[in-house]
UniProtKB/TrEMBL annotation:
Protein name per the record: Phospho-N-acetylmuramoyl-pentapeptide-transferase
Family classification: Belongs to the glycosyltransferase 4 family. MraY subfamily.
Residues passing through the membrane, by range: 6-27, 48-67, 87-105, 125-142, 178-197, 204-224, 250-267, 274-293, 299-322, 349-369
UniProt source species: Asanoa siamensis
Membrane topology summary: Multi-pass membrane protein
Length: 377
């Protein structure tokens, strides 16, 4: 627990105090956010606000990960964990960094062209596919080599599973390694685009992502406390444990990312002095997808990220309705802009959408814990 707390604190402080520096640097570089001319007119006042702020909390998360591992070295030797970097960290931080890199290219092109159209859809999709496939393969083809204090191999799990999962793996939904990589690529696409579509109002995506990442930190730490690889916990044949890989590592990274988002939110909330841009939105989406895979809760993700699902579906509904009937269901999509055009204030929309995000997170955590209670009763 100490390592997770250290990571959260370091990420928060780095993000909080480095974001103003990023604001000055991006402002000096004239890296302002171009505003769509066909969007809500009240957004025109945000023109020139520096973007690409996601760079700050991505870097803060990596620094906090290192700090958390330094804290891990001070724990008693009988604790079950791998002190050095793990494949799990490679996958999760890789998804954060390289998904963010795809977004950075998009943001850079927007700034350079002084236009809201950055990387074309095909290029962005290709980048997301490559990132998802690369880390999906790493997650499925590299089993753990963790040893206990006697030198015996205690955990041969991979980061991902060949079976689809809800609270844990569903054995009869085994799709094989290739099928699992394909599923993960789809999850990455859904998650990155879901967060990106949500990032339309000051602080909206940042606050919602903080809740989701905080939920995964709790889930992963609970799995660590009830881990099948921990011989001190698995003492009876009927002990309820979680067959995952490196759950403390997952909790540390999720906590670090959540802390970094909170520090960034200080400057990103209305009126925002900096935007996360596609750099941050795609990075967070990639990390959230990795969290779902590594905690074996892929089918729980639509509930944890309920707000992202609702906003994404508003776009899908709008497109289908317009192309089939020529009519729009919403004044504008994504959904947050519909309420803007209906006369709601930006802060009002953000706070209420945060409540929706919180409800989804609470429902998911309730389902996760109720499964544990049902199994141990």
């Amino acid at each position: 627990m100490r390592a997770v707390i250290v990571a959260i604190a370091v990420a928060f402080l780095v993000s909080l105090f480095c974001t103003p520096i990023a604001i000055k640097v991006f402002t000096r570089l004239k890296a302002g956010q171009p505003i769509r001319s066909d969007g809500p007119q009240m957004h025109m006042g945000k023109k020139g606000t520096p973007t690409m702020g996601g760079v700050v909390f991505i870097v803060a998360t990596i620094i906090a990960y290192v700090a958390g591992h330094i804290a891990l070295t001070t724990l008693p030797s009988q604790q079950i964990f791998q002190v050095g970097p793990t494949i799990t960290a490679l996958v999760l931080l890789g998804l954060l960094v390289f998904s963010g890199a795809v977004g950075f290219i998009d943001d850079f092109l927007k700034v350079r062209r002084r236009h809201s159209g950055g990387l074309n859809k095909r290029g962005k999709l290709l980048g997301q596919l490559l990132v998802g496939a690369t880390f999906g393969i790493v997650a499925l083809y590299f089993p753990s080599t963790m040893l206990d204090t006697q030198g015996s191999r205690t955990n041969t799990e991979t980061v991902g599973s060949t079976a689809l999962s809800f609270i844990r793996e569903v054995s009869w939904l085994d799709v094989g390694k290739v099928g699992s990589v394909i599923v993960f690529v789809l999850v990455v696409l859904a998650s990155t685009n879901g967060v990106n579509l949500t990032d339309g109002l000051d602080g909206l995506a940042t606050g919602a992502s903080t809740m989701v990442l905080g939920a995964y930190a709790l889930i992963a730490f609970w799995q660590y406390r009830h881990w099948c690889a921990d011989p001190s916990y698995v003492t009876k044949p009927d002990t309820y444990c979680y067959a995952v890989r490196d759950p403390l590592e997952i909790a540390l990274i999720a906590g670090a990312a959540a802390g970094a988002c909170v520090g960034f939110l200080w400057w990103n909330t209305s009126p925002a002095r900096i935007f996360m841009g596609d750099t941050g939105a795609l990075g967070l989406g990639g990390l959230i997808a990795g969290m779902a895979m590594s905690t074996r809760t892929v089918l729980l993700l639509p509930i944890i990220g309920g707000l992202f699902v609702i906003i994404t579906m508003s776009v899908v509904i709008q497109i289908i309705s317009f192309r089939t009937t020529g009519k729009r269901v919403f004044r504008m999509s994504p959904l947050q802009h519909h309420f803007e055009l209906a006369g709601w204030s930006e802060v009002n929309i953000v706070v209420r959408f945060w409540i929706v995000a919180g409800i989804g997170v609470a429902m998911a955590l309730g389902l996760f814990y109720s499964d544990f209670l049902a199994a141990t009763s």
